[in-house]
């Protein structure tokens, strides 16, 4: 009989579990629904708490910006609005508007030049009137942090008016006409990374008065909005470029400096009374350009050069960096900038042709970093700068960072007289296998640059407390928190004598465990607050007062995990007397919610709410007690809710995915079992809607480390980057089981087997799993475990492994190309969990490598190994494929060209999602085999045919070991349409 060819997707619901059998009124999720699922993004509250902005965006297509008047319970929508913000006085909302998705796509199809592409427009919305004005072709905008009166926006090149008056040349800027309305669709993306010199418009929002400045390349508001600083490019010898300031009170423009080729890195102090920048007279085409640091004050109205190659304090043969970020101290008396050693200049060899020049990398055992890491870090090293400071009061430059101590950090306000220097220079040779990495730490005097060694050979990261009184760090070597007074030289161990663990109690890797994180410091460095697994502790950084559990051990007693949630992002410390909001998780039920407590007051934490949901993105209006938050479950998308700080009468605001009610969805529950070693384990079981325990369902098993705590996470239907989309398969009648895994050092594969298999067996014993139709799927570390499991058991009918390591002996000596690091650390100390070198534990490397047991594989295996994978070498997939192919085992390998570890391009994600569905539907539901599985896709038709057609035959002929497959050319692929 001639095969009947069906389009991919028509039989996605084939088998015993059709939509009609479950619920006639609802539809099954298929791959063509992805774009109908939307996400809520970029939500923000106005400072007065009256208004809420948020965008609802599809996975592909045009989004909608929503403005909600919370007081009036009303709202407006703006198609394609994004990058939205409220002014600080809550009077205006500003946002950009994209061009339509279709318009941009058509322009790309026509291969339009960047300047011809559709551009963004800008919307200025008066919240009191509800009316908006639109400005066409705007590439960016800025608002001052502490003023609601002013807006500056930068126009695209083609909108610049040649006849426009250059107001920066006049004492008083000439007002320009107010912007006229433009259609919202006249919007789009910028024209590339290089900043073009185009028109800048400054708008006084209350009056609509505008001031225009031509040839602007960069601009900056002072925090208070009292000045707008901007850089102009030179037009000719008469119209020189320079740095200018517009005073928003006097409405006057003032030149600060001019005549140089380049100005960049503008930074203002918080009062807008000082400005710093770097500048160069050298042409942009010069190989080595010399920059100078300039400083301007409103008091003397002069931009002075304060640092250069020849200035006092600059190390010999060093220079000012153009790449370092500049910054004033909070008091405004210090300016921090970057320097670097003058690089060696090489003259071009004009006696050789390019074809005669040798290109090679020389690897030596003396290299501090291996060549791949050097090459990966090349651009960063070329732009590396070393922190220096200029004391503006005593007019003195001090170099803080050096080649020996390259990394220097300041306290948050930058006011402290001491900085922290760190260096791993003495330990670079061990990078790649010794983890956590080691470093030495110094205390550096900001006034004179003198330094003293504070901590030698630590695996922690010592930092400076907010007030600059202490060094503090978690020390992995002994799993304790430590401090050191900057005036002393002896560390104080704050947690050694406490009878609780401050390290990860669930750590199952052969490496030193991480900590549970830091809550923060209180004012003036009085207390350091740290977390254990459950509770929050108050520690005296001097080590004199006894440690206090501020949550009174209530978390540990009740299986609750408390974590401080700051509602004021401007706060650098934890308030001592105010009520603290604690994000809370029940580690047993996975319910979440909020409690309150105090730093110094006694008493147990007080519950606000605990619900079977996950809570994320909690934010408070600056000048109101209104909160916005999101909560979700497997059945409910994480929409926006508003309430007050007591969480009374919460109100749901957004409804991003009402279409979900039209589809079969399902449910999730927490299940438990014991490993083969008797250890209690948890996992998630997803069931189809209208689940009937008397029926038997095919089951997919997906795993990666631990996932039980994601019980209440929402999972949207979306094309897969590497793993199964759970709601899609559940809607189509599959059970999906996600088991947690615990590990023993040296036996990662065996540990996975002893965790996963008894979990599967415990579900089979319940009677509703079709044990003859089960499959497994995993990606990366999960992909390795899939490859391992199919060498140990035949209980699964099919398996899909994404980016699997198949041969630990060859992978051990490889490189993680995304970072350039050796892979050795991963096998010895982290996720692969062998716990020793290849020559110390050769048999464990072999026993945990699926490749060496390929003859035992009886399960059809589909793999993905992409040729630009920077985490797992794609040859690991090739090794497994070639072994199984040689043994005539059913195996397929998908290689997405140019793709990374997880698929990045949406077209490839869609393709993988369809192929995984076809693969599992074929083996677990008896659906027809697709062409790509049956006959492959020859390279002759690559990019023209994809083999996604399903071929229905009288009987499904599943390949069996020992059976010779039919030649790939038995049916010419060209006949399949």
Topology, element by element:
Blueprint: E1 4-6, H1 19-22, E2 38-45, E3 51-58, E4 64-69, E5 74-79, E6 81-86, E7 92-97, H2 101-109, E8 121-126, E9 131-135, E10 138-142, E11 150-155, E12 175-176, E13 198-204, E14 209-221, E15 227-232, E16 242-247, E17 252-258, E18 262-268, E19 274-280, E20 292-297, E21 302-307, E22 318-320, E23 327-328, E24 334-341, H3 371-376, H4 378-382, E25 386-391, E26 396-399, E27 407-409, E28 418-423, E29 439-445, E30 451-458, E31 463-464, E32 470-475, E33 480-485, E34 492-493, E35 518-521, E36 528-531, E37 536-539, E38 548-549, H5 554-558, E39 560-564, E40 580-586, E41 592-597, E42 606-611, E43 614-620, E44 626-632, E45 639-644, E46 651-652, E47 667-674, E48 680-687, E49 697-702, H6 726-731, E50 735-739, H7 748-764, E51 769-779, H8 781-789, E52 798-802, H9 808-812, E53 815-816, E54 821-822, H10 824-828, H11 842-847, E55 861-864, H12 875-886, E56 891-894, H13 906-925, E57 929-930, H14 931-934, E58 950-952
Parallel strand pairs: 49-50, 49-51, 51-52, 52-55, 55-56
Antiparallel strand pairs: 1-58, 2-3, 3-4, 4-5, 6-7, 7-8, 8-9, 10-11, 11-13, 12-14, 13-14, 14-15, 15-16, 16-17, 18-19, 19-20, 20-21, 22-24, 23-24, 24-25, 25-26, 27-28, 28-29, 29-30, 31-32, 32-33, 33-34, 35-36, 36-37, 37-38, 39-40, 40-41, 41-42, 43-44, 44-45, 45-46, 47-48, 48-50, 53-54, 57-58
Helix pairs in contact: 7-8
